[in-house]
Specification:
Distance between the termini: 39 Å
Shape: globular
GO molecular function: DNA binding
Pfam family, one: GerE
CATH topology of the largest domain: Rossmann fold
CATH architecture of the largest domain: 3-Layer(aba) Sandwich
InterPro entries: CheY-like_superfamily (IPR011006), NreC/VraR/RcsB-like_REC (IPR058245), Sig_transdc_resp-reg_C-effctor (IPR016032), Sig_transdc_resp-reg_receiver (IPR001789), Tscrpt_reg_LuxR_C (IPR000792), WalR-like (IPR039420)
Organism: Phenylobacterium koreense
CATH class of the largest domain: Alpha Beta
Strand content: 5-15%
Order of helices and strands: EHEHEHEHEHEHHHHH
Number of helices: 10
Oligomer: single chain
Structural class: alpha/beta
Radius of gyration: 17 Å
Protein name: DNA-binding NarL/FixJ family response regulator
Largest sheet: 6 strands, parallel
Length: about 210
């Protein structure tokens, strides 16, 4: 039995993925989540074979969830199923450990093929992503700035961009305000920004939050 977890903040998208999985003999939906923290908690509990994640998830985005799953549920293969096709987001997702990357504009047949491939421990990429990877192999790849962020810095970055104060972030992440300030300074330095407004633009550009 191939066990699949679905995480997307749009119920209609989750329903469409679920219908594909449930129509396939030998596949089973073992959990659904509408935000990244719930997806992470479910994946750690259920240990699915495949996790189908959107990138722009609330609370924890899909890239940080992918990083965490690589550490805490290494047998789970992550398929990033998203509308984002810019090279920095693709690079960030693959660097985080995703084994598949599929665009929501791709057909249902591609989604079924992607889940099947990851279930067999094979990677799967949309044709657009495959072309990006080919270009990167031929020419020197430009590193995504997100790749230099630690997991905690990405968490703090998302919460900053969502408008949380240092005290609110400290409470949410159960760390000290001083530690938040340190991560905030490091994240802003790596993003090469100086103001909160510039940081919000950076977060939107890199799909840490929705515009």
């Amino acid at each position: 039995m191939l066990r699949v977890l679905i995480a997307d903040d749009h119920e209609i998208v989750r329903r469409g993925i679920r219908d594909i999985i449930e129509s396939h003999p030998g596949w089973q939906v073992c959990g659904e989540a509408a935000d990244g923290q719930a997806a992470l908690d479910l994946a750690i509990e259920q240990q699915p074979d495949v996790a189908v994640l959107d990138i722009s998830l609330p609370v924890l985005n899909g890239i940080i969830v992918t990083r965490r799953l690589r550490q805490e549920s290494p047998r789970t293969n992550v398929l990033l199923f998203t509308m984002h096709d810019d090279d920095e987001t693709v690079s960030g997702g693959l660097a985080a450990g995703a084994r598949g990357y599929l665009l929501k504009s791709d057909s249902e047949d591609h989604l079924e093929a992607a889940i099947s491939a990851l279930g067999a421990n094979r990677p799967y990429f949309s044709s657009f992503v495959s072309e990006l990877l080919l270009e990167a192999a031929i020419s020197e790849r430009k590193r995504s700035r997100l790749e230099s962020f630690t997991m905690r810095e990405i968490e703090v970055a998302q919460l900053i961009a969502e408008g949380n104060s240092n005290k609110q972030i400290a409470r949410l992440l159960k760390i000290s305000v001083k530690t938040v300030e340190s991560h905030r300074a490091a994240a802003m330095r790596k993003a090469d920004v100086r103001t909160a407004a510039e940081f919000v633009r950076f977060a939107i550009k890199h799909n840490l939050i929705r515009a």
